[in-house]
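Quick one - first record:
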Amino acid sequence: MAAARRRVSVGLGLAGAACALLGVSLLLVGPLIIKEQVIKNVRIDPSSISFSMWKDIPVPFYMSVHFFEVLNPKEVLQGAKPVLNQRGPYVYREFRYKTNITFHDNDTVSFLEYRKLFFQPDLSNGSEDEYIVVPNILMMGAAVMMENLPNFVKLLLSGALAGLKQEAFMNRTVGEIMWGYEDPLVDTINMFVPGLIPFKGKFGLFIELNNSNSGLFTVNTGMKNISRVHMVDSWNGLKEVNYWRSSECNMINGTAGEMWPPFMSPTSLDFYSPDACRSMTLVYERSGKFEGVPTYRFVAPKTLFANGTDYPPNKGFCPCMQSGIQNVSTCRLNAPIFISHPHFYNADPALVNAVEGLHPSKDQHALFLDVHPMTGIPMNCSIKLQLNLYIKQVSGIIQTGKIKPVVLPLLWFAESGSIEGSVLKQFYTNLVLIPSLLDYLQYIFLGLSVLLIMSAAVLMATSQRTTAEKSPRHPTTQSKPPSSSETTPLLHDADTLSQDDAEA
């Protein structure tokens, strides 16, 4: 029985040692295996899991557009404050895909990314055929651009505008404002001021967005250095742009805004936006989960569109009086276009108070990006921007009336998307479930090893105690023969009887 216990205790001890070895191995080697798999699958390599996701983004993106209708255009012409009413959203399904993918010897790859937009009536609050009263963007923009020209030129143009029945505000459909409309004003302006508007034919705010690319990006593949994967090497062959007045503002930083290097820290992330003509920095707000996947949430800091007075590094972007807007005229044909957060969220209150009908809200108007920190892949995002037009009375152009200078919101849009369906399931299984399973297994093995080794020790101690109790005792000194007095009473009586018989 004792031998059997010893054999069982030895077996338990060996099993415990094996579990300890497995637990320690998983503890030390498991993270290395996971890290190696992440590196292998997030770099831009045709053999990686994420390559097809990078090439043809499977995430369903939607662009929601909200227009600001001017309710009192006649009063605005007389100097009144504009009263706005938000219309929409008008929702478009957005498909993104890359072409001209070319790998280079210096660990970079070049590509063109195209966008196609399709109107979604069932998700929209209105149709593209609805009419909206908005500023005559082309005429009012051209008027501000020509403010410093000689008066006779402006008077000639004003007469031509009257002949074309051009007014400061127009009533156009959503589709026309978005995708363009024929306007003889384009040819008229080009006749009076050649080169002022370097395009012909239709004019629309988003006419260049649909079925077009965002420029030639060259980014790092991460094959040699994973910490540089997706980081922009150049855009349209440029290492920096020349739109702004400082080298810091002209820098092209971060990625193209689709993915980031893996193993992120909760600090900040950078990306270059061709739409905003600049690099942007988002800051870490909090940790969370999206459909069970751990994420870091990054948001826009209050300094993103701050002026140079409130935030000196932004001084090169524009000499804006108020914080919260950015003049992008230098990269938008010199038109007086400003970008901001929707409803002037996080902007100087003077901008909000200059019009009626704005209600800035963090929940509705703040942009965010939820990124899986281990891989640098966005799980859920909503990027929001507002387009604004600077309008005012321009002497010599009677169509501008007595309009007071104001940065007038035209529209705001949100590009939103999140990983879902089979892509989300595969992502969760490979990058969350399996690593979590390995993490649990290492502690299960270590805990089991402690239990088995303790059981083996207890069983061995019990076996040794039982063996000791059953073994014969060995005296330390030799025994002497017993004396007569130490004999048993029965023997003593027998001796007595023998003596009596002899005397008889």
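second record:
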Amino acid sequence: MITSTRRVSPDKSEVRIAFSLDDTSDVKDVEDPSETFPDLEQRLQPVPPCLALKESVQVYKEHCRMAREFHQVKHEIAVLEDRKRKLLAELVEDEKVAKEIARLEEEFRRLTEENHTLVTVHKERTQQLERLCPTNRTRQDSS
């Protein structure tokens, strides 16, 4: 194992780096170094690790995991935005239907009122006719 301790500047604490050239257990688990993430800008693509440094391999693996997670989240956002678009279209359609229902209900109310008025007028005219009919018959009989 190689260990190095450095002080970057007098006011900063020491930085300690340790690695071993013999321990390659994490190197076997490294994702395909040619793996790319098309959703990420070029500057955000994971940089292949220095296989001799365990920390570099760990950082690379974590970076790849985050890139895959980013891709998954971006896909979920796209699915949810599509669902939102469909729901908004349904809402617009439902609002149109609700307006049409309200218009039809108002028309029904108006026609019901008109029908009630016409039935009332019809009854009144029928009663008037019945009152006038006996009078007309009496007049015809006297002539």
